[in-house]
Amino acid sequence: MTTHAPGTAAPSTTGPAVLPGTPVVPGVAWGPVVRPSGAVVLPPDDGIVVAEQERAGEKERFAAAAGVVADRLTERAGAATGVSAEVLSTTAGLARDRGLLSAVEQRIDAGTPAAVATVQAAQQFVELFTSLGGLMAERVTDVRDVRDRIVAQLTGQGEPGVPSPEQPSVLLAEDLAPADTAGLDPTRITGLATRLGGTTSHTAIIARQLGMPCVVAVGGLDDVPEGATVLLDGERGTVTVDPDPEEARARVEAAQAAAAALAGYRGPGRTRDGVEVKVLANVQDGAGARAAAAKHAEGVGLLRTELAFLSRAEEPSVEEQAAGYAEVFEAFPGERVVVRTLDAGSDKPLAFATMPDEENPALGVRGLRVARRDPGLLERQLDAIAEGARRAGASPWVMAPMVATVAEAADFAGRVRARGLTPGVMIEVPSAALMAERLLQHVDFLSIGTNDLSQYTLAADRLSADLADLTDPWQPALLALVQLTAQAGRRTGQPVGVCGEAAADPLLACVLIGLGITSLSCAASSIAGVGARLAVVDTDACRRAADAALLTDDPHAARAAARRELGVE
Ligand code: PEP
Ligand code: MG
């Protein structure tokens, strides 16, 4: 077999080409290639003016098309669950959004044909969302998706997006709109590979929830010929073109056996040699916590409190917050629950907490820094956590995001202890990793947020699909900072967990344990995969895998070294 670098053409004479990418969801899929249907042809603005007496009819035509699009997406949302259902309903909501609809209607009233008016109004919203940045900028993909669907409906083009092949197939795409990914039918599409996208992209998050084998940032995908068969390996992060059928069959069978082992996972997390490693869940509310408990999470390693309030104009009351936190505590009686105080700003803007018009929000007043301007916000949230804990009879741990200095950690710890709670901080900024031991003189635990730590260590926007190779959690520089932080915890005897997406990768989870991490927290859908893998490895092998990965120069080599040391096929 041959491998070739991202972006280069697949060799045709030396056996099956193996295209490397970034693995997102483990599992193996083998089948014919399908691709999303071609781009919708958008109408040019050729200055045609709709006669005045026809404008009402044109508006009706537009309303009917938008209605069909919204209804279709709503129907798919009804058939989906979790994040997929949310994404599909959000996109359906956009096709019914009064602001967007009236922007189109105003243009039709002025004589612009419906399809052109749709393109122009969508562009207005794209520019608005882009200028707002952060999560709003991510909505640009949704706006373009809805625009294409409405234009296709108006102009008689086929519905854009993913085909529904008769035979189970592997989908290869440039990138997918969130609604396309969420609407995938796992009985027809058995694996997904994209040329763009990182491990924290929407595509990745939804594929993880669907449990669909997925590899992103794959170079050379465009060169895979129509009619080819591919073997997609979501753990190795490879797409093999026209593989040897015997080998492909064996790999699929091995993956099925691994999946069967996952189905039997009941926790608690421990390595084969009996070292306990808590496998916890990342959740955003009580419903998520209950779902995680059903998937055998041993507790919550990260309650992202800001996510419940993303659409709120005003700060929620202490009473409302306390009730929400109590629900989460009640899902895990007597177990560990780590609450993160509001991580507002940058990719998660909150109307009541975020500074508008920052030049560079990722480096701005986000996370704990919001308390510099508005200490009352933090104080009231801590009151609410304490009240929720009192009601549920819980003893939660409480941590702050985006801590950069010892003074910040000391100040936060004081406020948390004053309420009888256990303080910790997240390690998301390289300065905090470098000062880990000094931070531990003030707080009782650390939790490494690898999504942000990789963004700030590699100086690469975590949302940028073009820079996904830099924010890959296997970057040896990131692993070195994880090791530094874990060693600090070992010296002081305090726990150091990982709660970023890195902890959802079963292979990387072993390396993290080898680096000295004491607990892992990931999406509920990843818990069984991580727990089942830990159960078949010894801590010595984890340590060897960690040492080997640290000595490599890039993420691909780090993965390969870890596989070798862990004896993973
Ligand atoms: C992280 O940065 O890794 C993390 C867990 O926090 P979030 O993804 O919510 O920023
Ligand atoms: Mg973070």
TrEMBL record:
EC number: 2.7.3.9
Occurrences of domain Phosphotransferase system enzyme I N-terminal (ranges): 21-139
Residue sites binding Mg(2+) per the record: 428, 452
Enzyme class: transferase
Cofactors, names only: Mg(2+)
Subcellular location: Cytoplasm
Descriptive protein name: Phosphoenolpyruvate-protein phosphotransferase
Organism per entry: Geodermatophilus africanus
